[in-house]
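hiii, so i know i said id send this last week but things got crazy w the move. better late than never?? heres the sequnce for the chain we talked about at the cafe, plus the structure i predicted for it. fair warning i was half asleep when i ran it
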Amino acid sequence: MPAVAVLLGTLAIFALAYRFYSAYLAKRVYALDPDFTTPAHTLKDGVDYLPTNKHIVLAHHFISVAGAAPIVGPAIGVFWGWGPALLWVVLGTIFGSGAHDFGSIVVSLRSKGRSIGTLAGDVIGARARILFLLIIFFLVTLVNAVFAIVIAGLFVSTPETVLPVLVTIPLAIAVGQVVYRRRTAALIPSIIALVLVYACIPLGQLLPISLAPVAEATGISENLLWIVVVFAYAFVASRLPVWLLLQPRDYINQHQMVMALAVIMIGVIVGMDTIAAPLFRDTPADSPPIFPLLFITIACGAVSGFHSLVASGTTSKQLNKETDARYVGYLSSLGEGTLALCSILACTAGVMVYSANSGTDWGTLYVDWEAASADPQGMFVEGVAGFASNIGIPESMALVFGALVIVSFAVTTLDTSVRLKRYVIQEIATITAERFSSGSASRRALSFLARNVTLATLIAVLIPFALTMVPGDFAVGTLWLLFGTTNQLTAGLALSVIAVWVTKRHRNPVMILIPLVFLVIMTVWALVIQLGDFAASGDAMQTFLLAPLDAIILVLALWMMVEAAIALYKAWKNPPAPEGAPGGGAEGGTGTAGASALTDDSATDAGKDEGESK
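okay and structure toks below
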């Protein structure tokens, strides 16, 4: 199959989905109101709540959710064949991620910009709030652990990447100073910064930075040393004001995302390469089953619960108009689906262009599950290098470019995830402290944790760091599956909140319930399979650490689904009066009056805190 046919065909399907399906969701399911006054206006504070141009919000939202995961997941998922991987990316993006991201923004918009975890308590029930927060806690823990290992692995395999990555930090700070202090547009400074980063690629090739000498001197593996460095950076970066480093680095990464997609797409069109992988693969007997594991291996790029944290924690606070939710939420989902599509093509066609001189066939690269999950980011990097060679870019330079793309996105996601985890820890501490009597030692300790940003951040970093210390090189294999399962579970829970919200407003929730039911079945099925595998592995850490962790997440998932089912049944049997009618929902009508009528949706500190992540 020509790669260009898959590329153009998928992009055409995505365009039709935006034109027709997102319009259906906007009109019939979410009932967007152009006259509704958004929280960015009613709660405007110039920090978290700020009316912003929809194009800028789209860029920020897209780069926040499009990290390394939509690259790594599809790079592993093609193990079962490019056909199932592509089909899940297309269907998951259109019907899962589109409805999920779009809906998370809308529900938060109609609730004063509060986070999806907090909203679960109002929409589903009081117990749902703490259950959702615990699941989010496990999700961001796994995100931090997996992405730190991915970054460390690329630094070890591609030391030429380290210098351009390090240079990005002071450049991003400089951009932040220019934009914040002088109140100028970020476009030109961020483009200049990206040009300077790319100018450092040849310098990085001349001066590769490696920790191998330190590893030899200390007896500590180089991979572990880089993990320590990455988490130390994450601790410091997540404590800085968002305008100083996080946001300006996002500006730079926006342009880098465009460059990466352009290199891949132009390389596909110019090279006219053929996909070397089979459409559907007859995998080895001891391979993980395609059902359900394909659907949790490819999470981001199809549908991802992490998006609901960003959509409700940051994006909803910036929308100028409610109708912008379609443009930002659905279009960003299509953008991440496009990135996943490019990862599939890179690992099934581009990688063969890179490997042509060695005579290696695709089956050798993906001979078994261990090979497929050992270095998926490396497969993508080589695929990008192959496509780049089609347009005259030297492969050695293209290798650094591909690794730089993944590291840049992973670092941004890691920083955001550490911030989100800090907020979750502080919110859980606040809720738990209320259960102890006033003046007790436990209440004082928990209240101190809830207020102390440094301590909460330290805990947010140390827990995933401890998880990376688990012996065995299964970080992007076994650990990735557990991360993907928790991520998809979070997506299912966010969809349950959206489904109940839609049902209470006399709208048809079927198009929300379909991806919801599918994700719940796949994630619970995967958790059960993984629990058995961990328990029977014979490895002490898998048996006594990952198996209990899997079991806890499984119990939380089942409990949360029961709560959601009860809430959905009650909403279906006893819906309230239509919005705007006497005795109707608290949202009232539209316009400023409608916005001020959100009397039962008082803002919480948790919602505002989560908004500070971007």
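btw The domain at 3-414+453-477+585-611 is CATH 1.20.1740 (Amino acid/polyamine transporter I). thought thatd interest u
miss u guys!!
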